């Protein structure tokens, strides 16, 4: 879809972003770390599943092995490692700006997925200045406990996209978004 939008000049890379949560977080995590990342100006990754090597030992992860496979078996070598965003971060790659949002009290996807990914990107030469993180200490898998929190999180995400995609100047810290 991104390639088609760019090919037809509906938009440009500098104005194109993706956003997804939970399984959609896995999808956009892969868009961030795999070969098509150069198509994107920004990524918003919400309550994401990102470490496919350890997902089965965190919270509800064991219940997903029927869908994803068992990383403690040959499933890891056969296919799981090919779409594990955490394991696909490469030192020689350039990554688009990214905001990761999660919730401390998420009972489905452990916030450790987002925490580890952000830590890895903050240690990366080209991603350290364009990777941002917000963890709500309340809420659950939806990321917020009430409408006020949900609205705040939406403002943070849209402010990130607005500032990242419209003027090309990234904020120096999350608080600068608002």
UniProtKB/TrEMBL annotation:
Keywords on record: Hydrolase, Protease, Serine protease
Sections of the chain in a coiled coil: none
Listed EC numbers: 3.4.21.-
Domain Peptidase S9 prolyl oligopeptidase catalytic stretches: 1-166
EC class: hydrolase
Source species, domain of life: Eukaryota
Keyword Protease: yes
PANTHER family per record: PROLYL ENDOPEPTIDASE
Homology family: Belongs to the peptidase S9A family.
Protein name: Prolyl endopeptidase
Source organism of this protein record: Durusdinium trenchii
